Amino acid sequence: MLSYLRGDRRLRVLMMLTAILSVFGFPYISMMPVFARDVLHRGATGYGALTSSIGIGAVIGALGVALTSGRIRRRGRLMLIGGTAFGVLLILFAASRALALAMALLALAGCAMIVNNSITNTMLQTTAPDHLRGRIMGFYSFVFVGMAPFGAFLFGLVAEHIGAPSTIAGGGAIVAIAVVITGLAVPELRDT
To answer: 21, 30, 94, 180: which is deepest, by most CB within 10 A?
Structure first.
């Protein structure tokens, strides 16, 4: 299975992007309590509002992809747009200091995150050969879920020294830059 991943550029790149998003993007959620308390000065109520916004955006994104999946012609392009938007929205969220603005940006970030994740998942399943699909999706699950705790640890370590907003913005910048570079360097991904 690993030799197949090494030989298939699209699958390899999708796995690498998933790893980058898991380590540098998704751990923004672990920073929400700190952001609500120290940046927005809203405590538990603000934390609840922020995480609810992510969930609302994610539901909207998932429904959007589900309702339009048969009409999406260039899934790879939409996946790259979703990943780039996710990184940019994290940067904007990190700069926000008003609860309403932060909630709106997180809703958009949740939507972009789900668009990217669901299309990546679809592309992996439709690209993988039948006899390897289960193993490839198992490896994807490991990368998607298993690497996020390392990112959360890294975010906590960095945030202790430079603060939660700068850490979130830095993670968002890494995600956005990685996705843009991938889109430019791997044309077969964006044309899929």
So the answer is: 21
